[in-house]
Every structure is written in C-alpha cells, then in structure tokens.
C-alpha cells in the first residue's frame, strides 16, 4: 500500500512538473512572439514616417520654387518701376 502511495505521489509530482514545464514553454513562446512582432510594428511606423517626410520635403521644395519665382517677378517689377521713375525724373529735370 505504501508503495502505491509513493508511486501515486511520484506520478503526481512528475505530472505537476510536466504541467509547469509546459506552462513555462507556452509563456516563453508567447513572449518571444510578442517581442518578434514589436520590431515589425516599429518598422511599419518608420516607413510611414519616411513617407510623410518625403511628402513634406516635396512640398517644401515646391514652396521654395514658387517663392523664388515670386521673388524674381517682384525684382522684375521693381526694376521696371525704377526705370520708369528714372525716366520721369529725367523728364521733370528737362521741363524745369
């Protein structure tokens, strides 16, 4: 009888150790899977940021191009105005 009791305790201990071993492996694998997915999620975020940055850079370059063109037009208008004012001053001196 004692032998059966010891055998039962031994089987119970081995079963419990097996169960806890299995639980440790499952938790370990879930954690490993979670850790593996984190960099993939970050990579997606980095790609999105890179796409946004590229779009922003394109918009900035276009805005800069427009600004340069507007400055060129303003300079041309200013040059024509100076020429016109210079001509008017010359005419005013000649009239006097």
UniProtKB/TrEMBL annotation:
Coiled-coil features, chain-numbered ranges: 46-81
Key words, A-Z: Coiled coil, Membrane, Transmembrane, Transmembrane helix
Domain of life per record: Bacteria
TM segment ranges: 7-28
Protein's name in the database: Secreted protein
Native source species: Streptomyces lividans TK24
Classification lineage: Bacteria, Bacillati, Actinomycetota, Actinomycetes, Kitasatosporales
